Amino acid sequence: MNPIIEQLKEVPLFESLGDAELEALSQVVKLKSFPKNTILFSEGDESDSFYVICDGRVNVGINDEDGKEIILSRLGPNEYFGEMALMDGEPRSAFVMTKDACKMMIISKTDFKKILSSKFDVMLSLLKELQRRLREANKKIESLALMDVYGRVARLLTQLAGGSDPGIQIKDKLTHQEIASMVGASREMVSRVIKDLTNDGYISIRRKRITIHKNLPYNW
Fold this sequence. Notes:
Elements: H1 3-9, H2 19-26, E1 30-34, E2 39-41, E3 49-55, E4 58-63, E5 69-75, E6 80-81, H3 83-88, E7 95-98, E8 102-108, H4 109-118, H5 120-146, H6 149-161, E9 168-169, H7 176-183, H8 187-199, E10 203-206, E11 209-212
């Protein structure tokens, strides 16, 4: 069996495609590997490709007016990115950098548009995913506007853990700088918040992995 077809079957976006369509799509897919910390594209770059993650994770982010990096989301296997700029023709609105060594399936702009024009189910699935990401972006904007740093850190840790049940552990190893980039704050302020959460028994940290022990307060 074609390994690209097997990988395509794992991607929710393409679940409506039949065997013949998957075979045709596999012919235009390029497989490429990237080392850790590789910038795949930057804000303002021209858009020419659609990416699907096979292995590894990437950070999607922007740089504020002071040049500070803000991580908007982290994507993993069978998730995708680069679709917005291909659809509206505008330059890339964010940068994408590999968090780990990654393997990607890459589809050209022309081939991606052919898929969208011929398969309504794929277009509908894509629109649903865009809607979900827009809701997440709105929540992040609300967090940045209405919550202090303590609240933002607490909310982020709860989201990364998938809840706040006692004993739940965040899978990712997180540095204070990474958390700061995700909540739009300084590393020094995040370090202070993490210290307070640890001292108050809300979390514990071992080998950069955070375990949540009780519900994190969003307001101090």
